């Protein structure tokens, strides 16, 4: 059977078959690990071949092949800087939502996104959103940015979902196309999708008062069929930082249209527009014919400034700057370590054991209630050091700990299973990040549970 991936939750994929029927699918066998360098082997928009799983009581599917992608938007994973994350594939047009404040969108973030769209031949449009909130100062800043990018050749829209401004023009651009909305959390992606298609009723949240920034409401990328103009929209989670992937230094300038237009006028064919003499790009920069912000973004990408794209992050997920990633009140902090021999059976057993463990006090101060009984919350943090072996020598060995390509899918499944069991969102740390965890331990109660040693 053939189909298109409409939603990805990390371990399960919602696939629309050619018949129009939707199936929940997973990856068949070791397909996930073969030749896949990204954190997600399958992305929303992928055309896939799948078969029905005859071993299951429900009509689920097994994906066994991905068809060639015509394009995709890819970025460096913030949590795992050596890996990449494919946001979506087979896209006709991408819309980057830009806000001047609440939250602010940096020119560095805009330029990195546009460079990636250029590299994969995808038309990109800038949506300056929430214009109904503009003051005189923010309006001036927006108009300047619109001038900079429209001069380069990018289409720019001024939109307000609340006041229904720019919606008709946006619909015209989306007709007969698969579109993708992207941007930071809080820029109004879900609100705008709701304005385009009110029946979807996507969840929205207000801006965080403490950080003047968005809170994630779209947890996973998802495609929707719209009721107008044979249009499809891919709504994506808020992007915290956008790192450019796999570009040779000689080609980066080609994805800045205003640089590419001057390339033939440079003295050297391999000019990187840095310190070379008679560089047409540098001459244009000195004449203010090229925006300094664009040139700054170019040099940062050219120099492989990975740290800078992390500084585009406006989120409570930035553990490296001591900002709060997740917090709960009454509930469980679960440190989970995946080992190389773990399987879905281990995940299922561990999930059931944890949510039903009776370790919370009842009205008689007896440990007799489970997390489900008290409607408690949960934070899950990956912790490979739980597999430390100390039998030999004084330096722990972590040989049993699974590598990321094995651990990540199981970790994601563990989180998803917990959410299904509890019927609510589970807070998580950043997989593979240097986390600082604070705990007020009641009791204290600390319990070790090992799926390989079910005592």
Automatic annotation (TrEMBL):
InterPro entries linked: Daa-tRNA_deacyls_DTD, DTD-like_sf, G_CP_dom, NA-bd_OB-fold, P-loop_NTPase, Ribosome_biogen_GTPase_RsgA, RsgA_GTPase_dom, RsgA_N
A single GO cellular-component term on record: cytoplasm
GO molecular function terms attached to this record: D-aminoacyl-tRNA deacylase activity; GTP binding; GTPase activity; metal ion binding; rRNA binding; tRNA binding
Domain of life: Eukaryota
Biological processes per GO annotation: ribosome biogenesis
Keyword flag Cell division: no
Keyword annotations of the record: Cytoplasm, GTP-binding, Hydrolase, Metal-binding, Nucleotide-binding, Ribosome biogenesis, RNA-binding, rRNA-binding, tRNA-binding, Zinc
Catalytic activity: glycyl-tRNA(Ala) + H2O = tRNA(Ala) + glycine + H(+); a D-aminoacyl-tRNA + H2O = a tRNA + a D-alpha-amino acid + H(+)
Documented EC number(s): 3.1.1.96
Localisation: Cytoplasm
Main localization category: cytoplasm
PANTHER family, alphabetized: SMALL RIBOSOMAL SUBUNIT BIOGENESIS GTPASE RSGA (PTHR32120), SMALL RIBOSOMAL SUBUNIT BIOGENESIS GTPASE RSGA 1, MITOCHONDRIAL-RELATED (PTHR32120:SF11)
Protein name: D-aminoacyl-tRNA deacylase
Organism taxonomic ancestry: Eukaryota, Metazoa, Ecdysozoa, Arthropoda, Crustacea
């Amino acid at each position: 059977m053939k189909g298109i991936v409409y939603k990805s939750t990390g371990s399960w994929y919602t696939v629309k078959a050619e018949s129009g029927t939707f199936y929940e699918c997973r990856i068949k066998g070791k397909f996930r690990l073969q030749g896949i360098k990204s954190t997600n082997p399958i992305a929303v928009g992928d055309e896939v071949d799948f078969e029905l799983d005859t071993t299951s009581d429900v009509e689920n599917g097994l994906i066994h092949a991905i068809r060639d992608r015509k394009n995709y938007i890819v970025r460096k994973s913030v949590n795992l800087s050596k890996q990449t994350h494919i946001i979506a594939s087979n896209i006709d047009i991408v819309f980057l939502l830009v806000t001047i404040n609440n939250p602010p969108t940096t020119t560095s973030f805009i330029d990195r996104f546009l460079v990636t769209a250029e590299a994969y031949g995808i038309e990109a449009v800038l949506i300056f959103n929430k214009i109904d909130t503009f003051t005189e100062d923010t309006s001036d800043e927006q108009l300047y940015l619109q001038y900079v990018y429209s001069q380069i050749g990018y289409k720019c829209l001024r939109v307000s979902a609340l006041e229904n401004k720019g919606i008709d023009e946006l619909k015209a651009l989306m007709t007969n196309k698969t579109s993708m909305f992207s941007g930071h959390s809080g820029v109004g992606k879900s609100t705008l999708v709701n304005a385009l298609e009110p029946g979807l009723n996507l969840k929205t949240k207000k801006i965080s008062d403490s950080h003047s920034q968005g809170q994630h409401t779209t947890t996973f990328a998802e495609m929707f069929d719209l009721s107008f103009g044979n249009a499809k929209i891919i709504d994506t989670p808020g992007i915290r930082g956008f790192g450019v992937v796999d570009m040779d230094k000689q080609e980066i300038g080609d994805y800045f249209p205003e640089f590419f237009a001057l390339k033939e006028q440079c003295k050297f064919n391999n000019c990187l527009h840095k310190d070379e003499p008679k560089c047409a790009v540098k001459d244009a920069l000195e004449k203010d014919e090229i925006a300094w912000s664009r040139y700054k973004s170019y040099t940062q990408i050219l120099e492989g400034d990975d740290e800078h794209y992390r500084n585009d992050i406006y989120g409570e997920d930035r553990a490296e700057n001591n900002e709060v990633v997740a917090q709960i009140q009454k509930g469980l902090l679960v440190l989970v370590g995946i080992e190389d021999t773990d399987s879905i059976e281990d995940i299922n057993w561990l999930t059931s054991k944890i949510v039903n463990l009776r370790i919370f006090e009842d009205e008689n101060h007896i440990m007799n209630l489970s997390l489900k009984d008290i409607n408690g919350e949960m934070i899950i943090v990956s912790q490979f050091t739980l597999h430390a072996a100390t039998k030999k020598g004084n330096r722990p060995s972590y040989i049993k700990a699974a590598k990321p390509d094995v651990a990540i899918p199981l970790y994601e499944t563990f989180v998803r299973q917990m959410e299904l069991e509890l019927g609510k969102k589970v807070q998580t740390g950043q997989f593979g990040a240097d986390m600082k965890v604070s705990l007020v331990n009641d009791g204290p109660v600390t319990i070790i549970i090992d799926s390989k040693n079910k005592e």
